[in-house]
Design goal:
about 25% strand; RNA-binding
Amino acid sequence: MHPYRTHTCGELRMDHVGQTVRVSGWVFRKRDHGSLLFFDLRDHYGLTQVVVQPDRSFFEECQRIRSESVIIVTGRVVARSEETINETLPTGRIEVVAETLTIESMADPLPFQVNIDDDGPEETRLKYRFLDLRREHLHKNIMLRSQVIASLRRRMMAQGFTEFQTPILTSSSPEGARDYLVPSRVHPGRFYALPQAPQQFKQLLMVSGFDRYFQIAPCFRDEDARADRSPGEFYQLDMEMSFVTQDDVFAVVEDVIHGVFTEFSNWTIDSTPFVRIPYATAMVKYGTDKPDLRIPIEMQDVSDLFRASKFNAFRGMVEKGGVVRAIPVKGIADKPRSFFDKLVEYAQSLGSKGLAYLVWEGGAIKGPIAKFLSEEELKALAARGGMTDGDVMFFVSDMVHTVNKICGDLRTKLGRDLDRIAKGVYRFCWIVDFPMFEFDEETRTVGFSHNPFSMPQGGMKALCEKDPLEILAYQYDIVCNGVELSSGAIRNHSPEIMYKAFEIAGYPASEVDKRFGGMINAFKLGAPPHGGIAPGVDRMVMLLSGESNIREVIAFPMNQKAQDLMMNAPNTVTEKQLRELHIKLNLPKEKNSEVRSQESATI
RNA sequence: GGGGGCGUAGCUCAAUUGGUUAGAGUCCCAGACUGUCGAUCUGGUUGUUGCGGGUUCGAGUCCCGUCGCUCCCGCCA
């Protein structure tokens, strides 16, 4: 007989009755009747009830076994009597009567209960991650993650993509996020950087003629965390294709994403092709470039209707170059005054000067600003928003950037507070036509708005002839339920166009050569038109599992401050290690002595 | 770097306008119990109320500072 098990804890059924089997696992629950004792034995596959009779030599020892100890049980599979069948367990019609029992690993009292999915303090859960991972909830998420990744691989390969590995130790790229640096021992004073994404490598693979690349790629960025953004590292389904248009990329991604979401969820999923929304439209209608389409509220620009109105605050803003945005909401005219007051307060907390609104009620139009507007203006507003009795239209006016931010937040809040977010659906969209350049208010200069490697729409002609701020790029995002899954682009594979684009952004050709010499050189030796995208794997699993925190879909996540509380990373290193790397520390002053003593205790 | 929220037993939480010795469930320990399946019953241990200071006759409660976690802004080509 196998030393540990002949069957798993999820395996035994009525067919096995009469067999002598061996099962191993963790003690999930113990029910001690004094002269009879039950264990629920758990492993990855399920739960099996073990019965220990009082005449067994190991009976008393069993009474002392704590939860989560690992035991090995050999015994007979017995059918349970009719009244003791547990229908809630797949193995609930049988039990194993222990003949021998070995405590393989006795567990100390636990920092939190594994058999209760109540989540304890996150700090403790992270420190004892292996315990948390035993719990059904996390265990299931991590299994889902693995299955999703396997499915992504299958689907990519089915579409003719080849999986590659690219370097982890590479060079620092001057654009983008902060890099994680790794000092070189062999080259004093020089550093590798961990890749923020395999961007240049995948483009070089296209230049190498591999045609279709993909990778479940680890990406490293030293930026602060969010609920949906793991600090330090995350994974992307990175892909790149040669000789493709934007639509070709969309078709591939739609097939993979729609397929995966259909495979792992029974929610309703938008049919392909996913709706495409130009960036400029998205900013007006939703106030953001990652709209949650589950919320049935679409905003409108109504600046023109206030340009000549008697409402001075708005008219003045429009004259100054600002905008007025309307948020029409159906059927909330009967909300109490406090609802509106609170919303006004919320808008102000977002930085809005106020929140005007009109209420269509009982055939009349009421609200704080109604008296400033002519009948024609009110009629025009009603027509724009399709307002009928019971509807309310909110107005925000400011410079366009501020209006977008405030309206985007308000729309989401209204959707949530009014419970208007459609349930059980995944709503996808593509945001397309991102601007190639943007004006940086701080530096008063024109810079790249997203990826400097994107192909400008209209190519060299557009760069030479158009106002840079008018030029669009073949740059796109895919968004699901308000979560940005990914950015991608058709790349700029022409050295001339790239030099020109960088010139507009204020970088001379020499600078481009210095920073991206490798890639530019490659493009000078025969580069195919190519493009790609890199949907975030962690975020996909998050959406599929319904988690609102990305740590719930990562086996060993770091906390918000980018620490691994279980492995105690980052940590100090020895003098010798530093010496070999030619590194001398120049640390900031410690805040207090308590921190110092804690740190020295961990070394 | 900035703002919000939280911090009471190992865990989940309670404690009246500031008022006696800070409670309950769970875990743990001991005892009882032959059909449980969140076993049950009896008893017991567990506290620098995150830390420091202040106001007060009296602080878990109010004030200030600080630390930790978390959410958001900045940041994330």
